[in-house]
């Protein structure tokens, strides 16, 4: 426990800090940046919220008595007509969703190839580079399909990239400094995406409703059983959201190169 009263903490950095149950009263958070932060259960009263950008996994967000989550979902579905198809309920829906992702990622990679190779390692606003994004999707597939569904206790490729806030786990790679070429990472991606395609093509109503066999080895996800539907839904969400991030940042890189 620590009290900061009348303290000037401007410009301070808080990383891997536990503020569960903290009380903030009459605090100036202008221009603060939050990344990988858990706001579950947070209550804000008497706040002044303007010119704020929020991007993340949002559920049950109530503003001035209105749950805005359904409004946000509806607007995003309107902007991206294929987005609703990323919430499938049966094997045919999963196959359709994966086909959409295969097509969209082919288009995104073609746009990336038009940039000079060094730009594909550049960060935009502190986010992952395009290459880093592809490496993370390799890690996500290895984890939720290779490990959770197919039962490989250590499926990770050395170039796979976990999310930055994940604690270090023995045997799970995290080479943040690696700079593989686009073709090297795309070869990994093609292999992993074909694995997902095989799993989804083989789905039945029974297998989709089943739970995975627990993997008894340290790693990610944690060694326990998971619903197959949840594992595949996580992969769909990762692929969908990170492609949008990639498109956003590729546009910024193109503009940067044109200056």
Automatic annotation (TrEMBL):
Species lineage: Bacteria, Bacillati, Actinomycetota, Actinomycetes, Micromonosporales
Domain DinB-like: 101-245
InterPro entries, alphabetized: 5peptide_repeat (IPR001646), DinB-like (IPR024775), DinB/YfiT-like (IPR034660)
Source organism superkingdom: Bacteria
Name of this protein: Pentapeptide repeat protein
Gene3D superfamilies, sorted: dinb family like domain (1.20.120.450), E3 ubiquitin-protein ligase SopA (2.160.20.80)
Biological source species: Krasilnikovia cinnamomea
